[in-house]
Amino acid sequence: MAAKPPRWYFSLRSPYSWIAYRDLTENHPDVAAAIEWRPYWEPDDIGQKLLAEEGIQLPYVPMSKEKHFYILQDVRRLATERGLTIVWPVDRDPNWDVSHLAYLLAEDEGRGRDFIGAAYRARWEQGLDLWDRDVIARIGDELGLDGRRLANAADDAEVRQRGLVELRKVYRDGVFGAPFFIHRHDKFWGSDRLTGFVAAVRAGMQVDLAPAGDLGHAGGCG
Question: Is the pLDDT score of 195 beyond 60?
Answer without folding.
Answer: yes
